[in-house]
């Protein structure tokens, strides 16, 4: 079975495509009335997140983050910055590359500057995206910490969803030999368990920390 006709592990329901497109355009039009630029950037982001090699870091991932952000909107001070960070944080995603976050942040800065977003907002979005390299919130404000928790929400999902996630990540790294993948994946997962807490906000620690640690421990056991 080729990559083109493989069933998606995390498919996006068809009715949500229009929602995502409208959400993105609405966000971009907050600061720009240039419909051509807005349409072009919307098309670019939708196409990037629809690339064939994305088994997890796709439009379904964006949708889940936007949905969870909306559910936490009263805790977010600058909703537009968080929403922009969600849309741009994985826009460049090539699994063999070590510069995805840097390139995604660069595209965000260039694109949002071109649409006249405020400089302070652009800088905030850039910091949030770059923080996803190591999921380190040292340079982030409360909004940024919540954004990182949203991005790591999958770790605390129910075990069935987490298992699908682990399979999707393996599919994205299918080019890596099995033995090497097991070693490197364990290193990533063990680093999360070594933290005092995986999540930065009290809400997410209370709701997801225990499940996340159990999920990660189970995957490490399976990889061993």
SSE inventory with pairings:
Layout: H1 15-28, H2 35-49, H3 59-71, H4 79-88, H5 100-114, H6 119-131, H7 142-151, H8 159-172, H9 178-193, H10 202-223
Helix pairs in contact: 1-2, 3-4, 4-6, 4-7, 5-6, 6-7, 9-10
Description:
This protein is 63% helix and 0% strand. The chain has helices at 15-28, 35-49, 59-71, 79-88, 100-114, 119-131, 142-151, 159-172, 178-193, 202-223. Helix 3 (59-71) runs antiparallel to helix 4 (79-88), helix 4 packs across helix 6 (119-131) and helix 5 packs antiparallel against helix 6. It has 224 residues and is mainly α. It starts with 14 loop residues before the first helix and ends with a helix.
Largest sheet: none
Quaternary state of the chains = single chain
Number of strands: 0
Going by helix content, strand content and strand pairing, the class is mainly alpha
Radius of gyration: 17 Å
Please, how many helices? 10
Shape: globular
* End-to-end separation: 28 Å
- Give unreliable regions as ranges: none
Strand content: under 5%
Helix-residue proportion: 55-70%
Q: H/E element string?
A: HHHHHHHHHH
Mean pLDDT: 95
